[in-house]
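Handout, section B. The chain below has 266 residues.
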Amino acid sequence: MQLLLSIGSRFAAIFAHIGALSWLLLDASTWIFRSLGDRKVRLGRAAIVGQVCRIGVSSILIVSLVSGSIGFILAFQMAPPLDNLGQVELVPNIIAVAVLRELGPLIAAIVLVGFAGAAIAAEIGTMVVGEEIEALEAHALNPVRFLVVPRIIAAVISLGCLAVLSDLMAVLSAAFMSKTVLGIGWTTYYKNTLAQVGPIDFITGLLKAFVFGGLIGLIACGNGLRVRGGAAGVGNATTRTVVESVVAVIIADLIFTIVFYSLKLF
């Protein structure tokens, strides 16, 4: 009986958390739409640009390093089985599909979770502990409008750009490895890549990246606003942000894959 109560309370907490995040998303979306139709409602361009620089620009180096390494790994892993079939020149075909549709946005999202998601949660959580959120509300300033919305928008923009960078670095590193080790010429690599993928592959991957960015920003801000218990609460919020963001990104990726397959987009 105690086990059932424990499981039930756990599920209740999960659904309550999802409901809180949904309400936060609705509130943030309302402010975004109001800013589009009402000139008096401004979200703060400087705040958004600052968050893009803090979240996106700071992640360029690590995303490039990880994606480039993945490109090398894929080239090495794909070559032996294809060489056994006498089709080693198809390495660029497989890598292009894997990177543009899946690995590019996924790698960028996971890097952004660890690099920026936890930082956002810790920053907002520290504001909660320091009663800065209450100070904003006392001055009739909505925390969602001035803190949450700029960070969600910045996460969406940053992850979209980082996904493109991730695609480029993975494909280029795989091309370099294919040329120097596997003996696949630049022309052959280029032609096989273009023959295998099209604009829809890039667009679907970019769409995934935008949604992943929104999820990461939403979860990070939501956990930050829920911080309780001082410094320990901030630490718990950052841990939850990383775990929940990775799980949310993977589940969203699964849903996208099922939908795209059902629509015969690949």
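Note. The mean pLDDT is 85. Compare this with the example in section A.
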